Amino acid sequence: MKTYNINPVISLQITADISLAGGLNILYLGTTLQKKLNFSLFGLPDSNQKFKGDVMGFGCNFGVLVDLTKDLSIGTSYRNRIKVDIDGSLTHNLQSPLLSGSFPNKNGKVELTLPAQFHFGVFYKGLDPFTFEIAMRWEDWSSYKELKLYMEQSVVGYNKLITPKNWKDTYSFNIGVK
Predict the structure, then answer these.
(1) Distance between CA atoms of 169 and 178, rounded to whole angstroms?
(2) Model's pTM, two decimal places?
(3) How far apart are CA 42 and CA 99, in angstroms?
(4) In the chain, how many domains are there?
(5) How far apart are CA 156 and CA 147, in angstroms?
(6) What is the CA 37 to chain-centroid distance, rounded?
(7) CA–CA separation, 8 vs 5, rounded Å?
(8) For residues 58 and 25, what is the distance between their CA atoms, to the nearest angstrom?
(9) Residue 157: left if φ>0, alpha if ψ -120 to 50, beta else—which one?
(10) What is the pLDDT of residues 105-143, one digit of tens each?
(11) In the chain, how many H helices and how many E strands?
């Protein structure tokens, strides 16, 4: 999966110590999803299934920066989830001609939700020439419950393939000195 994000932002200095910002996320996503099809139960070699597509999606973000003192600042930002429906093509690289009637190449759609993100950081510059920062990042991967592929024509009697994911949220913590 490749993503490109264009993020025009407007920021405002509310007071001498408080700044706000907000913006639009314009997302281009191109993806190739591949999986093996196991036919060993039927004495046939494994085959490959591939979905390829792209989409534009939209979201928003906002942030706040507060200067607590001349040397100490805190900031936070949030990006919302972006749900996309990726139109594309589903192809099968079948190792046995016996399967071609049951696994036709066709158009399809994948539903995908990219996670929300939250950042929080503290910045200190009171020990010249050094600056210090600690930060935390959270990503809402638990929103990614399943990968859904809808097909315009059925494959082996199914028009929808669902792959459970049930991912967990991720957290990262950073410390930096410059």
Answers:
(1) 30
(2) 0.80
(3) 11
(4) 1
(5) 19
(6) 26
(7) 10
(8) 5
(9) left
(10) 889 999 888 999 999 999 999 999 999 999 999 999 998
(11) 0, 12
Question: One-letter amino acid identity for 63?
Answer: G
CA distance 170 to 138: 6
Scored b (16 or more CB within 10 A) or e, 11-38 reads eeeeeeeebeeebebebebebebeeebe
What is the rounded CA–CA span in Å between residue 159 and residue 151?
5
Joined together, the tokens standing for residue 86 give 């990726």
What pLDDT is stored for residue 76 in this prediction?
98
- Report which of 16, 147, 151 is spatially closest to residue 84, judged by C-alpha positions: 147
pLDDT, one tens digit per residue, over 33-62 is 998 888 888 788 888 889 999 999 999 999
pLDDT at 142: 93
Task: At 42, list the tokens.
Answer: 């039927």
AA letter at 37: L
Query: Residue 102 pLDDT more than 80?
Result: no
Tell me, what CATH number does 92's domain have?
Answer: 2.40.160.60
> Domain limits at 40?
2-177
**What's the Cα-to-Cα distance from 65 to each of 72, 88, 173, rounded to whole Å?**
11, 41, 19
Average pLDDT value for residue range 54-80: 97
Classify 42 as helix, strand or coil.
helix
Residue (of 75, 49, 48) closest to 62 by Cα position: 75
